[in-house]
Amino acid sequence: MEFLSGTTAKETMELHDLMAEECIGKTVRVNGAVHSVRDMGEVSFVVLRKREGLLQCVFEEGTSVLSAKEIREAQTVELTGTVEKDERAPHGIELRVTGGEILTTPYAPLPLPVGKWKMSTSLEAKLDSRSISLRNIRERAKFRIQEGIVRGFRDFLYSQQFTEIHTPKIGAKGAEGGSNIFRLEYFHHPAVLAQSPQFYKQMMVGVFDRVFETAPVFRAEKHNTKRHLNEYTSLDFEMGYIDSFHDIMEMETGFLQYTMRLLEKEYADELKILGVTLPDTERIPMVRFDTAKQLVSEKYNRKIKNPYDLEPEEETLIGQYFKEEYNADFVFVTHYPSKKRPFYAMDDPADPKFTLSFDLLFHGLEITTGGQRIHDYQELRRKIAARGMSEEGMDQYLDTFKYGMPPHGGLGIGLERLTMKLVREDNVRETTLFPRDLSRLEP
To answer: Chunked in runs of 10, what are the mean pLDDT values of the chain (443 residues)?
Structure first.
C-alpha cells in the first residue's frame, strides 16, 4: 500500500533558484521549451522558455552528450549544466550545457514566429493560433500583468474584510434590463446569461456586509469596436454601511494604489518587457458628469450632442483634459443622469434627475461603473414601477430588501479594458485570452 503525503521537491530548478548567488558555478538540471536556437558553428545558443522567463543555454562542441544539432524550436527538453554569470544573457546568467535529453518533439513547424521579440503578424492571426502566439514573451507578459491586477484586487479586498463569493451565470432574469441579454433554454424554461452579478452581490451584502467576485459576464451587444466584447471578466465588489458613494470611489482608489505597488514590486520584468510606465494613482480627481461635458465642450470647441450620456469621443477628451490640466491618468465622472442608469441606482436627493453614481475613466476610456444603490424596499419598487418594468422574476431579490438592507453600493471593473490601457494597447482583444465578439467563437 502506498500513501501520498503532499508535494515532492523536484530536482530541476527554476529561474529564481538559478539567479541566486550560491548557484553560480554549480551543476544543475533545468527543463523548458526551446524558444529559439542560434547556431554559431562551434558554439550554439539555445534559449529555453520557462514560466518565469528566458534562460540562455550554451552548447560548446565536444562538451555535451546531447548535441545542439539535435535541438530545434518548440521541443521540450531537460538539460544539465553549470550556471555562469553573463550580463549579456537574460537575467544575467546562462547554463553551460554538459548533457540532457529531449522530452518531446513537435510534429509541425510553428505557425507564428514566437521566438522573435515582436511578431510581425495581424491580430486575427494571433487570435486564430492563440495558444501558440502566447508563447511569445511580449504577448505572454500582458497576461502576467493581468494576473497581477486580479491578484491585487483580491489581496486588497481581503485586507479590507471583504468575502469572496461565486454567483450563478445562468439566471431567470437580467440584472441590467434592456435587450442586450443572451437568452437560452434551460430544461424547457427560458433563461439568460448573467449581464452582471448585481442582484446576487447586493443580496449578499445583507449576509457578509462586504463581498467581491471575479467572474465572466455576458452582453449581447452587436458592437464591433476595439473596446467591446460579448464576454469579459468583471471585477465586482459591493459594500454595506456606507456613508456615501464616495466610499466606493475611495475603495477603488485604494485598490489601484495597492495594485500599482504590487505590479512595480512583483511584475517588474513584465513591465520592462512591455515598456510600461505605471500610472499615478495617488490623487484621482472627481468631476460631475454635466461639468465634465461642459469643460471639454468649451476647451475643445465640441458641441454637446447627447446631454444624457458620454460618447466615446467625449470620454477621450475628458481624459485628455484632466491629463493636460492636472497630469491625472484617472478621473472619476460622477452624477450620471438617472435615465441612463439601472433602476437600482440611487437618485441624488438634491436633484433626482441625476444619480449618486460614477464611471472611472483611465486615459479616456471607461473601465468602471459604480455607485450607491437604493436600499429601501418601497423606494426600489417605486423606481421599478416608474420605469414601466415588471417585478416578475425579481421576487427573491426584492424579498431581500423587504426584510431590511443597509445603505450600500459597489462597482464593476472591466479587467480586459483596464489591462489594455495599462499596457497601452488599442484593442481590447489584445488583452483577452480567448475573445468572444460578433465574429469569434473559437478557439
So the answer is: 87 91 93 93 92 93 85 95 92 93 95 90 94 96 98 98 97 72 92 94 97 96 90 97 98 98 97 96 96 95 89 95 96 96 96 97 97 97 93 90 97 98 96 94 91
3-state SS string for 298-330: HHCCCCCCCCCCCCHHHHHHHHHHHHHHHCCCE
State how far the Cα of 373 lies from the Cα of 400, in Å rounded to an integer: 14
- Amino acid letter, residue 325: E
**Distance between CA atoms of 402 and 380, rounded to whole angstroms?**
10
CA dist., res. 242 & res. 310, Å (int): 27
What nine digits make up the cell of 316?
477621450
Q: Going by DSSP bridges, is the β-strand pair 189-193/170-171 parallel, antiparallel, or unpaired? A: antiparallel
CB 230, CB 437: distance < 8 Å: yes
Q: Which residue has the cell 555562469?
A: 84
The answer to whether 164 and 213 have CB atoms below 8 angstroms apart is: yes
Which residues contact residue 150 at a Cβ distance below 8 angstroms, ignoring those fewer than 6 apart? 214, 235, 415
Residue whose cell numbers read 490640466:
325
Longest dimension (CA), the chain: 84
